[in-house]
C-alpha cells in the first residue's frame, strides 16, 4: 500500500497547474449515457474515481476510448443498465448513473452506496426526485431498482436540503422527460452549471443552472457533443493553502478565481496575499503565521466543505484560536486525530472544531482516512519539523492527479514509497 514520505520546512515557490474538475467530470461521463452518439470530453483528470466511472460506463454497455488526452464515450446501446455493489462501494458517485440510465433505457439497478468515512451519505433525495418524474422505485437487497417503461414525465422537484449529485442526477433524468421539470433548492455548485453546459451542447433545454431554481424542457433525444471540463476548484484551493502553509510564493495556473472566492477572502483576512493574475491564475504569498480566522462550511458559493480539512491544517499555525464549523457532513473531522499526532491542539464539540494556534508541528506517522483529510495531512507534513509518513495515500489518488510530482516541482520534499 503506497505511502508518502515528506520532510517539512521548505517554502513552495513557482507555478502549480490545476487539472480539470473530478466532481465535474464524474457527472459529465454519466451524461454520455443519454445519447447514442459520440461524446468527447477534454481535461478529464486521470484519477482513480474517473477510472472507476469509465469502467462503470463500459459495464452498462457503452464504449470508452482515449485519444490525445480526450475521452470519447459512445453509448450506442446500453444492454446492462446497472451499477453493481463492487463498483459503487468504491465510489458512491456511481449513483450519478441512476438518472441517465432510467431516462435512456427506462430502467436502472444501482447499488446503494453505503456510508463512507465522512458520513452516512444516503441517496434518498435522488430516489424521491426520480419518483417525482414518474419512475417507480423499489429498494431491496441493497439496490435501488428504478422503472419507467413509458419514459419519464416532467414534474416539480423540491429538495429538502441542497444535494450536489442529487441535483445532477435529476437534471440528467429531466432532459429526456416529457414536458417541463422544475428543480427547486437546486445545488448552485459550478459543477452543476458545467454539467448543464454539456447537456445543452447535447441538445437539452435548460434554464437557471447555477441558481437554486432550474427549469428543464424535456426533448425526444440528445445528440453527441464535445466539452472541456472546468478547472478543479478543490485542487486549486488545496494548492493555495499549500503555498500559504509553507510560507511560500506560488502561482496557481489554469484555475477559475471566482470558484475559490470564499477561500481566498478568508486567506486574505488571515493575512495571506492573494492576487488574481488574469482570468485563470492566482498568486499567493505568505511569509508569516496566519491570523486565526473562523470558517463555517456551506453549500456554494459558501466555504467548500472539501477545503475544510486543508484550511484547518493552516489554522494550527495561526496566531490565536479559530473555530471551524462543518455543516454539510456529520463526520468530517477524521483528520484532527492525525493532525494531533503531529502536535496540533484541536478540540471537537459537535459540528465545531476549536483549533488552538501557535503550534510547531513535528513529523509523525499518520494514516489518511478520506480524500480531503489526506490532503490536509500532506499540507501539515510540509511544515512539520522532520519527516512524516502518510499511509493509505490511495485516498489521495482518488482525486488528485500526480500530486507528489506537482508539489515536488515547486520545492516540496515528498516522495511515494511502498
Ligand atoms: C458532492 O457530494 C461532492 N462529490 C462531494 O465531494 C462534496 O463534499 C459534496 O458534494 C458537498 O459539496 C461529487 O460531486 C462527486 P451532497 P454529494 O449530496 O453530492 C446529504 C470530494 O471530496 N444527502 O451535496 O454526495 C448528505 O449526506 C467529495 O470530492 C442526503 O441526506 O453531497 C450530506 O450530508 C466528498 N440524502 C448533504 O446531504 C441524499 O439523497 C450534502 O450532500 C443526498 C445527500
Q: What do these coordinates show?
A:
The protein has 2 domains: 3-19 and 231-417, UDP-n-acetylglucosamine1-carboxyvinyl-transferase, Chain (Alpha-beta prism); 22-228, Alpha-beta prism (UDP-n-acetylglucosamine1-carboxyvinyl-transferase, Chain), CATH 3.65.10. Helices cover 31% and strands 25% of the residues. The protein has 14 helices and 24 strands. A 4-stranded mixed beta sheet has the order 22-23-1-24. Strands 2-15-17-16 form a 4-stranded mixed beta sheet. Strands 4-5-3-14 form a 4-stranded mixed beta sheet. Helix 11 packs parallel to helix 12 (371-383). The longest helix has 13 residues, at 48-60. It binds ligand EPZ. Residues 23, 26, 93, 119-126, 161, 163-166, 191, 305-306, 328-329, 371-372, 399 line the site of ligand EPZ.
Any low-confidence stretches, pLDDT <50, length ≥5?
Answer: none
End-to-end Cα distance, whole Å, is 6 Å
**DSSP helical segment count:** 14
Second CATH tier, the architecture of the largest domain: Alpha-beta prism
CATH superfamily of the largest domain: Enolpyruvate transferase domain
Coarse structural class:
alpha/beta
Radius of gyration based on Cα positions: 21 Å
The biggest beta sheet is recorded as: 4 strands, mixed
Percent of residues in helices: 25-40%
Q: Indicate the overall shape.
A: elongated
Counted up, domains total: 2
